[in-house]
Amino acid sequence: MNVNRVYALYFSPAGSTRRLVATLANALAQSFEAPLETLDITLPAAREETRAFAAGDLVVCGSPTYAGKLPNKILPYWKEKLTGGGALAVALVTFGNRAFDNSLAELCACLAADGFHTVGAGAFACRHVFSDTLAAERPDKDDYGELAKLGASVATRVAKANEPPAPPAVPGDADAPYYVPRGLDGEPVNFLKAKPKTSGACVNCGVCAALCPMGAIDPRDAASVPGLCVKCHACVRECPMGAKYFDDPAFLSHKAMLEREFGRRARSETFS
Fold first, then answer.
1. What's the CATH code of the domain at 204?
2. What is the DSSP string of 49-76?
């Protein structure tokens, strides 16, 4: 099969998903000697546009895992804003060292319903956005090695095929419910309404508002968060003054539980 153009399409508030998708898409573009185009859907305005692809396109699609599935506030984009038109796709998800649960199955199901032919998939452990210790150095050399193997497998399968290869079998249930967060005592916790707080170190530079994937932070007053917060931690991680933080007790208990229970090295997995 011929590949005429490769796309890197991702939602990535914290940056890990972007790096993995961009690396794989670049490798595939070089392999097929095809031009590469980047489609970053992290910010709200970028998700307003409907995009149509066609046979001859290869789209590397990436999303972080939130509570074991795709972020529910971004799900409408995957379901409603893309038309595959027979294009090939590679599905990538990242997860914060606990588990990717059903997120990869859900992304593959969305792409199939959109009219894509998924020819490869992968789930990669990355630093958890809640924590400075969970998978702090990942993705690392070994993860990128697995990513390279996935790229080589996809390139070989596509180059040898006369028609779209069968989709890879990925684990999980696209229709399964979201993972229920638990606290240190093992009981379910709910921090859906938790929002970042702002310390006196804030200089109201506007970086947090500009980076918020939900447009939730008031650009005129960084301490004001009138919109919906999805706990992506882009504002916390990228604030140049270190002024953003979460202090919700349920959130902190869940974070502590994750650090206590999931400190082992989670395995990245690929399917092709």
1. 3.30.70.20
2. S-EE--TTEEEEEEEE-BTTBS-TTTHH
